[in-house]
Amino acid sequence: MKQFAIHPVDKSLAPQIQAKIDNLNKPKGSLGRLEDLALQICLIQQTLEPSLAHPCHLLLGGDHGIEREGVSVSPRCVTWQQMINFTHGGGGVNMFCRQHGFKLRIVDVGVDYDLAGIDGIIDRKIARGTRNFLYEAAMTEEEFDRAIQIGCDLVADCIAEGCQVLSIGEMGIANTSPSSIWMHQFTGIPLADCIGAGAGLDTTGISHKYEVLSEAVRHFHGEPLSYFGGYEMVAAIGAMLKAAEKHLVILIDGFIMTACALAAIQLYPAAQDYMIFTHCGDESGHQRMLHAMGADALLHLGLRLGEGTGALCAFPIVDSAVRMMNEMNNFKNANITKYF
Question: Contact at 8 Å (CB) between 303 and 281?
Fold first, then answer.
């Protein structure tokens, strides 16, 4: 696998950053989480004047062999249908990207449909969906490395345009299944507590999903990232690691992207310094996974759409933290008596 130079953020500037935050014309600590975010972003960028230039959103598409086992209420054709819908601007991800000024890149990493030549879709297809991990590894090590590199290259393109903040979303029917297994394997949380309804399974469907995934885990041998992962998920890991290496602010979306972040942190623990966990969704297990990572989500809106929509919704809060650092006056300049 490709190696990354990812180091913990340098905290030597922290006292100066905190002093600036504390001397803004407000009661000390009165802007709560915004102050924590401001400190984190300033440390990532090593500055007292942070910025969030050219925000970019990667929408990564891929299908999963495990879908053939009936673990999702949605058929796999929804993946390619939604990918095409995104090119027409009709998805939730399109709306939020427009609202918050993100450049959207729609990328086919492994959709089980011929999307080549469709305007608006970047073709990085590795294969038409992964293999069924109930019986064999979802991908080869060579395919895993290709997916990591695809994520890296996409981030490099964003950086070349001046990107300082990255969000990532996914489109792939049945991708809550590998996410649940990664969560189980990397945290030790019982598999039953890692499995939820996905796109809308009922109680019977969830029970069947548990049986299938339990059997897959019993068959498992080798490397969990390549054995269970999806092409779009591994590409997301590569994107996160490259973004951390280049000191970007990384907005982590819902259950699936949190599982990818968990995997990235398994490989490079320091990558978590660059991540902001934007929301806790309705998928069963998401809160448990965040807790296991020591992460506290910004939003709790009952979201479970995916596509990176929760990360995009949270962006104005992150932006407010940066604006606080750059636009609020301090006590001295405002001629206000400092009262603490």
Answer: yes
CB atoms within 10 A of CB 310: 31
Instruction: Report, as residue numbers or ranges, the catalytic residues.
Output: 307
Q: What is the pLDDT of residues 274-287, one digit of tens each?
A: 999 999 988 778 99
Decide if 292 contacts 190 (C-beta within 8 A): no
Using CA atoms, how far apart are residues 311 and 111, in angstroms rounded to an integer? 23
Res. 340 pLDDT band, cuts 50 70 90: low
Backbone angles phi, psi at 202, to 5 degrees: -85, -175
Measured CA to CA, the distance from residue 209 to residue 279 in angstroms comes to 25
Q: Exposure of 263 by Cβ count < 10 A (0-12 exposed, 13-18 middle, 19+ buried)? A: buried
Assign 321 to helix, strand or coil. helix
Rounded to the nearest angstrom, the gap between the alpha carbon of residue 245 and the centroid of all alpha carbons in its chain is: 16
Q: Phi and psi at residue 151, in whole multiples of 5°?
A: -60, -40
pLDDT of amino acid 339? 65
For 57, what's the count of Cα atoms within 13 Å in the CB-facing half-sphere?
Answer: 29
Which pLDDT belongs to residue 205? 85
**Can you state the angle between helices 231-245 and 255-267, rounded to 10 degrees?**
60
Residue 169, pLDDT score: 97
For residues 89-114, average pLDDT = 97
Rounded Cα distance between 279 and 299, Å, is: 4
Q: What is the pLDDT of residues 151-206, one digit of tens each?
A: 999 999 999 999 999 999 999 999 999 999 999 999 999 999 999 877 678 888 89
Task: Please give the biggest Cα pair distance in the chain.
Answer: 70
The C-alpha atoms of residue 183 and residue 68 are separated, in whole angstroms, by 22
> Sheet harboring 275-277: ordered strands across?
121-123, 103-110, 56-62, 165-171, 249-252, 275-277
Whether 27 and 340 have beta carbons less than 8 Å apart is answered as yes
